[in-house]
Amino acid sequence: MRLAGKVAIITGAGRGIGREAALLFAREGAKVILADVDPQAEKVVLEIQGFGGEATFVRSDVTNRESCVALADAAAETFGRIDVLVNNAGITRDAQLIKLSESDFDRVIGVNLKGTFNVTQAVAPRMIEQGSGRIINVSSVVGLYGNFGQTNYAATKAGVIGMTKVWARELGRKGITVNAVAPGFIQTEMTESVPEKVLELMRGRTPMGRLGTARDVANIYLFLASDDAAYVNGAVVCVDGGLIP
Ligand code: NAP
């Protein structure tokens, strides 16, 4: 088991990639804290307990700083330490520049960018105290290369890479690695709103000839959280089937 005895917080773990990662981490021996605004994460906890894994749900809103501090406290109280943080919670509110509302701009910044900052600032002091930790930030190929209609989303995902690079420098000496994962187009509820025509285009542009699965991405979270990635720090790992050469 690659995460035996490790304690991992995964935000946005109620569905999609976060859910898949929670199941995978638990199968690999981690004690998982599922953090989500959506109580459906409770069902994932039951699935994990169903195969003998350890998990707990802490209802959390990454945009709310008090909620993030409460999450870090709850994780440490329940399992005694925090070894891994996966900043996976994210949303889209797509519109072209001219039509993008200020509230949709602010909302996406609040969840994807400030949310990542809020949770990490709440959790990092405990990792510093322990002298070890793994922080995995979730970006997107859109943060590297842009995408039509995603001004707000691209800004957050590029910002997540920026914060990753800074934290890798600040926390590396304290035994903590910080890396980013940049998925391409992955089949989850997030991409259900993308028109089939666009998805077909993306399949055509992807050398692998298919969209990614949540498991494709969760596997990389697992690698970065495991001892195998001990010397990987400040990296951005694309999981996009070769979409972006
Ligand atoms: P998803 O299926 O939409 O799941 C996201 C989860 O995050 C949902 O359970 C959602 O709850 C939760 N969430 C939303 N706002 C939150 C908040 N304020 N606090 C805590 N949890 C919150 O998304 P996904 O496709 O699995 O994506 C996971 C991550 O990968 C995101 O960061 C996304 O940007 C990134 N990503 C995805 C793709 C893709 O193609 N799917 C590609 C590149 C990057 P609700 O159900 O209440 O909304």
What does this molecule look like?
This protein is of the alpha/beta class and 245 residues long. The chain is 49% helix and 16% strand. It is built from nine helices and seven strands, in the order βαβαβαβαβααβαααβ. It is globular, with a radius of gyration of 17 Å. The protein starts with 6 loop residues before the first strand and ends in a 6-residue tail after the last strand. The structure holds NADP nicotinamide-adenine-dinucleotide phosphate. Residues 11-12, 14-18, 36-38, 60-63, 88-91, 111, 115, 138, 140, 183, 185-186, 188-191 line the site of NADP nicotinamide-adenine-dinucleotide phosphate (NAP).
Inertia-based shape: globular
What structural category do the secondary elements indicate? alpha/beta
Bound small molecules, which ones? NADP nicotinamide-adenine-dinucleotide phosphate
Major beta sheet, strand line-up: 3-2-1-4-5-6-7
Give the proportion of residues in helices.
40-55%
User: What is the H-and-E element order?
Assistant: EHEHEHEHEHHEHHHE
Please indicate the percent range of residues in DSSP E strands (runs of 2 or more): 15-25%
**What is the top-level CATH class?**
Alpha Beta
Whole-number total of structural domains: 1
- Rg on CA atoms, Å: 17 Å
The averaged pLDDT comes out at 97
Note the gap between the termini.
33 Å
- From the 3D structure, determine the CATH topology: Rossmann fold
CATH homologous superfamily, by name? NAD(P)-binding Rossmann-like Domain
In the CATH hierarchy, the architecture is 3-Layer(aba) Sandwich
